[in-house]
Specification:
The protein has 106 residues and is an alpha+beta fold. Helix content is 60%, strand content 15%.
């Protein structure tokens, strides 16, 4: 990937996007229900991650057809939730990961 025509690898890319996003963005706060039954309020400042996420989703729209995107859209929030809760080796997480890998390969 590149920023302003300069090719960057993972660490440098995220550092650069965090800097750029921090200069031009804002901080988001949220309240979440934790897996253990308590609520937590936090502020997450990851503008580089947000920029990568939005860019990745935008790149999929013109390159993937409707039939490829349709089953993936509802799958992503549950996949993220399972990873967040630590179910990395759970069969459901692995199935979702396999499907997402197939879609990404297209």
């Amino acid at each position: 990937m590149a920023v302003d025509g300069k090719r960057l690898f993972a660490g440098a890319l995220l550092t650069t996007l965090n800097r750029l996003g921090g200069e031009h963005g804002s901080v988001g706060g949220l309240v979440e229900n934790r897996f253990v039954g308590m609520k937590s309020r936090g502020v997450y400042e990851t503008p580089g991650g947000t920029i990568l996420h939005v860019a990745h989703r935008a790149a999929g729209i013109p390159t993937l057809d409707r039939e490829a995107l349709h089953p993936v859209t509802p799958l992503v929030p549950r996949y993220a939730e399972m990873i967040y809760y630590g179910f990395l080796v759970h069969a459901g997480t692995r199935r979702r990961s396999g499907l997402l890998d197939q879609v990404q390969a297209t």
